[in-house]
Specification:
Strand order of the largest sheet: 8-7-6-9-10-13-12
Number of strands: 19
Bound molecules: thymidine-5'-diphosphate
Oligomer: single chain
Low-confidence stretches: none
Number of helices: 14
Distance between the termini: 44 Å
């Protein structure tokens, strides 16, 4: 079977399969087990445009709906991060009078609220109705739709063109990225900017953080692939800013071709990507091998702890944990339950492997011997607030950049 690259349309071949996967955020009740949806999670890197992508994408309506389980405002550090993101845009990118800001995938308004409170004209676009509702309640003007060229035209008619088009952890979710970029081209003022940040492919490769690969992450971007994708529409990458969020992300700044000068940082990072082999097939085959080693080491560790009759609990039922658990086939005989602070996930079961998800209070009530930190990207914040667990003799299991107990 031959597949086409979602960006440039050339033939692509998967280099790795993770097997059958459920939805990363598809937490479910026992009654739902028998109808659980699975799809083949396979990845490819296009040899022409070098876009790293999933071969098969479940329909977006199945993933982002009225019961979407991910709320951005569950981490204090992320709230600070998005406040800083908004402040940076206000200070450096909104030079016009009465500017207009559009955010795609604004979730519960974690970033947009900082524009709303300053009465800056704004519009959030969030397809998941339940989270969009929270954003509206916070005073962020938000519509529950999928952004594309057609919607861009409607927005221009109603509000005029945008000074800034923002996004965080959303552009990599959209299989029809070309239509989004075509929409951006129409929506953006001649001097406007697009600023978005997403998990960065080079971090994933270097840390073997294969858990960034799941249904919602249709793409993992690099500067090279972003430059190509936007270049098709006469938009160009003018600046970047590496971020620590999500275990290593990249913030991209894009503008109409020729409207801004290009920062040296872009050129330097493109060189680094080339030197790191992001343009070579061998790099991806090596990544596959590293994933297999990581899986073997993790299973061995969990089985050893089981033999020693240690209690192991998962910390945070992240989307990422769904990939780890299903790729490594980890069931509740190895991980007793997963503690999570999101009410909508509690009392349900993890997608695919059906490990119970319990409220955080259960973790606190009886500390386990080991806690598998599925939210390793929030390690600093979590370690800081879990000093008592550590003091009680509790240990952390991390699988990134290699399987280890700390
Ligand atoms: P995140 O890494 O942002 O998730 P994802 O892989 O889905 O992008 O983590 C968010 C999840 O982690 C969310 O379910 C809440 C949970 N969480 C906790 O349970 N405790 C915590 O201290 C933190 C920071 C997150």
């Amino acid at each position: 079977m031959s597949y086409k690259c979602l960006i440039c349309g050339k033939n692509i071949e998967p280099f790795m399969s993770f097997g059958q996967m459920p939805f990363a955020n598809g937490f479910l009740t026992p009654e739902e087990f028998k109808n659980e949806y699975f799809f083949g999670l396979e990845v490819a890197s296009c040899s022409v445009c070098r876009m790293f992508q999933l071969i098969e994408q479940p329909a977006p309506e199945k993933m982002f709906h009225g019961d979407y389980a991910f709320f951005s405002s569950t981490s204090n550090r992320m709230a600070v991060h998005f406040k800083e993101f908004a402040e940076n845009i206000k200070k450096n990118k909104l030079k016009n009078k009465d500017p207009f800001v559009v955010e795609i995938g604004c979730n519960d308004g974690i970033m947009l609220e900082h524009f709303a409170k300053d009465r800056i004209r704004h519009l959030g676009i969030e397809p998941s109705l339940n989270v969009a509702k929270v954003a509206n309640e916070k005073g962020c003007r938000t519509i529950s739709k999928f952004f594309n060229e057609e919607l861009a035209e409607e927005i221009v008619k109603e509000h005029g063109q945008a000074d800034a088009f923002l996004g965080a952890n959303v552009m990599c979710h959209i299989a029809n990225l070309n239509s989004v970029i075509a929409g951006i081209k129409k929506l953006l003022k001649p001097e406007g900017v697009v600023v978005f940040e997403e998990p960065y492919l080079l971090d994933v490769i270097e840390k073997t953080s294969y858990d960034q690969i799941y249904d919602e992450h249709v793409f993992l971007f690099s500067l090279g692939s972003i430059k190509y994708a936007f270049g098709q529409y006469d938009l160009e990458l003018i600046d970047i800013e590496p971020q620590k969020t999500h275990g290593g992300s990249m913030r991209y700044v894009i503008a109409h071709k020729g409207s801004h000068s290009i920062s040296d940082k872009v050129l330097r990072q493109l060189k680094k990507e080339e030197q790191s082999g992001l343009n070579k097939d061998e790099t991806y085959l090596k990544f596959k091998k590293n994933c297999e080693i990581s899986r073997r080491d993790l299973i061995n560790l969990l089985q050893k702890l089981k033999k020693e009759k240690k209690r192991v609990v998962g910390y945070a039922a992240t989307s990422k944990s769904t990939t780890i658990l299903n790729y490594c086939r980890i069931t509740k005989d190895l991980i007793e339950f997963i503690s999570d602070t999101t009410p909508i996930k509690q009392g349900k079961y993890s997608p695919g492997m059906h490990i119970p998800v319990k409220p955080y209070a259960e973790f606190k009530a009886k500390y386990p011997d080991y806690a598998f930190l599925f939210a390793w990207n929030h390690a600093e914040e979590i370690m800081e607030k879990e000093k008592a667990y550590r003091d009680s003799g509790g240990q952390w299991i991390l699988h990134v950049p290699k399987v280890q107990v700390i």
